[in-house]
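Input record, target 12 of the design panel.
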């Protein structure tokens, strides 16, 4: 047999290449952290009235556009089209165009400037011997292995960190951090340098927040947001994440704001699909308004400290596109997408948040900290099945399943459920339907809804947490084959960017299990 291979070197080389390629693909499937798992369930053992220690910090993660090629958009359509007269300056002389490709909307949208900065923001919370860090990143979405990379860059034991929870704000005006929107000629080239920058600076924000820990007083508040003037549900049934929740951390000794955590569900895409500017969208103006205040008339004082926004439930899809947003001047109505609408939306949210915390906030009665966190495996059968299998997008393929994670956190009377994608509000707050024409009719599987099963006085469901696995639909609303539900004439968008019809039931069941684990571990509210 060996003589056969020696006499046929071409066949031997081909077979070795085939075997080597198979091994390479298999390794790529499992991703860079094939053995990484999370399984935690604990509650802090210190007395409930022992002081909570809180620290906050941020780092700028805005791409430096001067380090990339510049370009001229001849027809002002925000797409790079050389055949239509668009030109670029090859600054590094490599004979190719190197742009910051904005994530969200079309796959051909290179940045032309910066409207406002992007940042990674961290809040560290310690009670007794237990510490959790909450991190919000201005990104369209980061997949699980990139969050694992940041975690593994930090010696948790050395810094006394039990767990780090991440979420992306989902701004559609940030660099492509997933490899979906980076339009290029072959060979495909992803901006790993930007991922490196984001990783380093996010790590710095986490460690800076840990170094700033101080005794804190905590209060919380929430209101039921009306959709008008803020958000539109672009897909029936019309169900919204109406909970605007806020948690306010003040220094116990200084009475100055350390941080304000704000959560609500809406796509940060008010700048619109033709926007060529880097931006954190309405999130920027919300944070600026809460931190620094807004001038009169119709203004508010700033709370100071650091405002950190966590995205809510945005599947469905929740969007400001097509919404007439009133300006806080009480006169102007912003109908067109762009900076005006974006600023008005963010400032209106800031006004609501500050007024809410100043008039209706409730002091935390218990500083107990509890966590349940589990690695999960979810079926992926949709559009991104093969890119995931090949390790191009979201590497971590395990025999038909992608590795992800669900977390649940309790801070006194505040409870948070962290979902790894864009979950439909129907699964969270109720209203799942089985419409005529759906591909999987029958009784809803994702019932009862998740939020009523939470046990806090304030219950927040945070999306795009520790991963971005796309839209998470109720199975009975899945609709990818004609005839389409609700009289539509084409396949709905959500199914195109979802992991598949089996994703919703799995995420629902795993979320219930993690919540049960949290409640069994932490016990009743004290």
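The sequence produced for target 12 reads:
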């Amino acid at each position: 047999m060996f003589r056969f291979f020696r006499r046929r070197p071409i066949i031997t080389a081909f077979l070795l290449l085939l075997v080597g390629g198979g091994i390479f693909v298999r390794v790529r499937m499992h991703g860079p952290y094939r053995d990484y798992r999370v399984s935690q369930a604990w509650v802090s053992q210190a007395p409930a009235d022992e002081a909570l220690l809180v620290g906050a910090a941020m780092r700028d993660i805005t791409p430096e556009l001067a380090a990339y090629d510049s370009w001229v958009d001849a027809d002002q359509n925000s797409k790079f089209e050389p055949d239509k007269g668009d030109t670029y300056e090859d600054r590094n002389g490599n004979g190719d165009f190197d742009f910051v490709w904005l994530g969200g909307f079309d796959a051909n949208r290179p940045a032309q400037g910066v409207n406002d900065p992007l940042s990674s923001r961290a809040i560290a919370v310690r009670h007794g011997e237990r510490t959790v860090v909450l991190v919000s990143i201005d990104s369209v979405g980061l997949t699980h292995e990139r969050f694992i990379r940041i975690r593994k860059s930090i010696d948790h034991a050395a810094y006394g960190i039990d767990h780090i929870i991440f979420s992306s704000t989902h701004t559609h005006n940030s660099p492509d951090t997933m490899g979906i929107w980076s339009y290029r000629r072959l060979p495909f080239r992803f901006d790993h340098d930007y991922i490196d920058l984001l990783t380093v600076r996010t790590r710095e924000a986490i460690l800076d927040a840990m170094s700033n820990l101080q005794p804190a007083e905590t209060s919380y508040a929430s209101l039921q947001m009306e959709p008008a003037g803020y958000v539109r549900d672009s897909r029936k049934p019309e169900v919204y994440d109406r909970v605007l929740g806020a948690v306010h951390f003040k220094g116990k000794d200084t009475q100055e704001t350390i941080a304000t955590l704000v959560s609500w569900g809406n796509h940060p895409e008010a700048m619109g699909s033709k926007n060529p500017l880097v931006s954190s969208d309405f999130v920027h103006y919300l944070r600026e308004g809460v931190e620094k205040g807004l001038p009169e008339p119709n203004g508010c004082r700033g709370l100071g400290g650091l405002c950190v926004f966590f995205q809510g439930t945005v599947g469905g899809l929740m969007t400001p596109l097509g919404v007439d947003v009133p300006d806080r001047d009480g006169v102007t109505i912003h109908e067109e997408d762009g900076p005006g609408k974006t600023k008005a939306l963010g400032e209106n949210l800031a006004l609501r948040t500050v007024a809410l915390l100043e008039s209706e906030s409730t002091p935390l009665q218990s500083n107990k900290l509890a966590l349940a966190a589990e690695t999960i495996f979810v079926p992926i059968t949709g559009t991104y099945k093969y890119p995931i299998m090949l390790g191009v997008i979201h590497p971590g393929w395990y025999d038909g399943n992608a590795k992800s994670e669900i977390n649940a956190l309790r801070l006194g009377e505040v409870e948070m459920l962290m979902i790894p994608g864009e979950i439909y509000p129907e699964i969270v707050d109720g209203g799942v339907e089985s419409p005529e024409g759906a591909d999987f009719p029958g009784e809803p599987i994702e019932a009862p809804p998740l939020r009523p099963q939470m046990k806090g006085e304030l219950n927040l469901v945070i999306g795009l947490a520790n991963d971005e696995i796309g839209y998470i639909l109720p199975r009975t609303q899945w609709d990818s084959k004609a005839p389409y539900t609700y009289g539509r004439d084409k396949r709905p968008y959500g199914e195109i960017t979802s992991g598949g019809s089996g994703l919703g039931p799995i995420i629902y069941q795993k979320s219930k299990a993690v919540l049960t684990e949290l409640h069994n571990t932490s016990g009743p509210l004290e």
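The longest strand covers residues 214-224.
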